[in-house]
Design goal:
The structure holds two protein chains of two kinds.
Chain A: E1 11-14, H1 22-28, E2 33-37, H2 40-44, H3 49-57, E3 62-66, H4 75-87, E4 92-97, H5 99-114, E5 123-124, E6 134-138, E7 150-155, E8 160-165, E9 173-176, H6 186-205, H7 212-234, H8 239-259, H9 263-275, H10 279-308, H11 317-334, H12 351-362, H13 376-386
Parallel strand pairs in A: 1-9, 2-3, 2-4, 4-6, 5-8, 6-9
Antiparallel strand pairs in A: 7-8
Helix pairs in contact in A: 4-5, 6-7, 6-8, 6-10, 7-8, 9-10, 9-12, 10-11, 10-13, 12-13
Chain B: H1 7-23, H2 25-34, E1 37-43, E2 47-52, E3 60-63, E4 72-77, H3 78-85, H4 91-97, E5 101-103, H5 106-116, H6 123-135
Parallel strand pairs in B: 1-4
Antiparallel strand pairs in B: 1-2, 2-3, 4-5
Helix pairs in contact in B: 1-6, 2-5
The chains are: A alpha/beta, B alpha+beta.
The structure holds nicotinamide-adenine-dinucleotide and fe (ii) ion (FE2).
Chain lengths: 387, 136
């Protein structure tokens, strides 16, 4: 077995209605002036109002509210939120939202704690100190950002996604409250769910960082997603289905933050950075093609997943692995996700644009962990097949 | 015990290696194309090496302190650098676990990894020469 490191520093509190305990939890972490970060979609859907009410009722806490995080966040918004938090003397952060909000809040916390411009803190493991206490309340079941040690923020001007990675970026506490998912539209339920599916499959395929601890998270996470994602998409008020997808996404988050991901994420980051396509939706399109590309080196792993999910009992790894790829495609179709990149509004690219995008993907940190070496030409091949 | 016995020895080995990389037409062409400025911070023993490709025309190599502003900074033990140039470091694992710390756009640094791979073959000779010089 490889030597491995496994870290899961975030305390997880799960329960229907659990979001109401955010104020207590932040107090327990020693915070009293809380920056609350969210986005306009969540304001409109009414998700954050009851949580804010709990804070207003607690005289021992004060809040500073920032609800302008755009999709995929942006360095400008992060700097703005950090300036607001500093002006208001915040000593703790609460993020309520999907991956965009959670990632933005993580990076805001860097600037709030350490000062300066967020561009200066990009990197991997370059933070040396703990940040201010942070609590995350995910409202999508997908990204795993509620437990991951990374954050990505879009630099709109540069058409790139900036990466921040540090164990200090994993929130101190994450509150998993499935009732918050009820308002998530079917399309986003499906897309964010497929992000989690991609995490399970890509992370399980990474060789260099794997361990039995991560294996169980990927396998069982994927099983829960296959079991409950169609139901959560069709019947958004089914709390059991919502809970399963939420817990599975968090399991996948713990897995990939210890393992890494692969070529599908590298392509999704590059495409999302250039064209602003939604992360989960973009992953869902690339996933079957990325799996097919990796098949020759990871067939035994895909086969193990297929058998664990009881999709097949075929002894032949190649055959069993193909069953998994087919099932992934079928799941995407069943929950209404597009199967082609062109359907996401991505324009047809000229050769030089294609090479540029593939080079971006080829230097994305996700690609380091892909089980099979992928050249720029290989990446162009995957892209073209997915287009 | 650390592989390098002094800062001088470490800086000398790294400077020679990078000068050999500079003399290699293919590696230098690709590095210049990147226009990247990278600084390596070594510890145990201490060392600094800055590679400045920003003008796209000439690779500039400095050891020690200087005023060039790097885009990417990499921090590691000198032993890790040695193992890296021997091709023995699993870079993803080292980056994920913090053995190699990077500051700045990691993407840019990673894009250079495949470019400098041919230098793995150059390194042992340069390292041995510096060690023999010291022993002699
Ligand atoms: N840090 C990590 O580990 C990690 C991992 C994967 C992805 N990401 C990042 O996450 C981002 C994507 O996040 P996402 O997929 O969760 O989507 P998102 O956060 O961009 O949200 C998408 C939309 O859904 C709305 N929404 C969210 N929850 C809702 C709810 N309960 N009810 C109604 N509307 C709701 C939001 O208002 C928004 O308009 C990307 O930027 C990606 O890079 C981060
Ligand atoms: Fe993801």
């Amino acid at each position: 077995m490889n030597p491995f490191v496994f870290e899961a520093p975030t305390r997880i509190e799960y329960g229907e209605g659990m979001a109401a305990s955010a104020a207590e939890i932040l107090k327990g972490l020693g915070a009293s002036k809380i920056l609350i970060v969210s986005d306009q979609g969540l304001v409109k859907s009414g998700v954050i109002a009851p949580i804010l009410k709990c804070f207003q009722e607690d005289q021992s806490l004060s809040t500073s509210i920032f609800t302008d995080v755009p999709p995929d966040s942006d360095v400008t918004c992060v700097n703005k939120a950090a300036a607001q938090a500093a002006k208001d003397g915040c000593d703790g952060v609460l993020a309520i939202g999907g991956g965009s909000v959670l990632d933005a809040a993580k990076v805001v916390n860097i600037a709030l704690t350490l000062g300066g411009d967020v561009l200066d803190y990009q990197g991997m493991n370059n933070l040396t100190n703990r940040l201010k206490p942070m609590v995350a309340i995910p409202t999508t079941a997908g990204t795993g950002s509620e437990v991951s040690a990374v954050a990505m923020v879009r630099d709109v001007a540069e058409g790139k996604k900036l990466l921040y990675g540090s164990r200090f970026l994993a929130p101190d506490v994450s509150i998993l409250d499935p009732t918050l998912l009820v308002s998530l539209p079917a399309k986003l339920t499906a897309a964010t769910g497929l992000d989690a599916v991609t995490h399970c499959i890509e992370a399980y395929s990474v060789e260099v960082t794997r361990s039995p601890l991560t294996d169980v998270l990927c396998l069982e996470g994927l099983r829960l997603l296959f079991q409950s994602l169609p139901q959560a998409t069709k019947h958004g008020d089914d709390l059991e289905a919502r809970s399963n997808t939420m817990i599975a996404a968090t399991m996948a988050g713990i897995a990939f933050t210890n393992l890494g991901v692969g070529v599908v994420h590298a392509l999704a980051h590059a495409t999302g950075g250039q064209f602003g396509t939604h992360h989960g939706t973009t992953n869902s399109v690339f996933l079957p093609y990325g799996m097919q590309f990796n098949l020759e080196v990871v067939a035994p792993r895909y086969a193990t997943m297929a058998r664990y999910l009881k999709l097949t009992d075929d002894k032949n790894d190649e055959v069993a692995a193909q069953t998994l790829i087919a099932r992934v495609k079928a799941l995407s179709g069943e929950i209404g996700l597009p199967s082609r990149l062109r359907d996401l509004g991505v324009p047809a690219l000229k050769q030089d644009q294609l090479e540029n995008l593939a080079s971006l993907a080829n230097s994305d940190p996700a690609i380091m962990f892909n089980p099979k070496e992928a050249s720029v030409q290989d990446i162009i091949g995957i892209y073209e097949r997915a287009y | 015990m650390a592989i390098f016995t002094s800062t001088e020895q470490l800086n000398e080995v790294m400077e020679r290696l990078w000068n050999k990389i500079k003399a290699d037409p293919e590696m230098s062409r690709q590095l210049l194309k990147s226009k990247l400025t990278v600084r390596f911070y070594y510890r145990e023993p201490e060392g600094r090496l800055t590679l400045d490709c920003s003008d796209g025309k000439e690779m500039k190599i400095f050891t020690g302190e200087n005023n060039v502003k790097p885009v990417v900074e990499m921090f590691m033990k000198s032993d890790v650098a040695h193992e890296f140039w021997l091709g023995k470091v699993n870079v993803p694992v080292a980056i994920l676990s913090g053995k190699i710390v990077s500051k700045g756009p990691v993407q840019s640094a990673l894009s250079l990894l495949p470019v400098v791979k041919p230098a793995y073959a150059m390194y042992p000779e340069i390292f041995e020469a510096a060690r023999e010089k010291k022993a002699g």
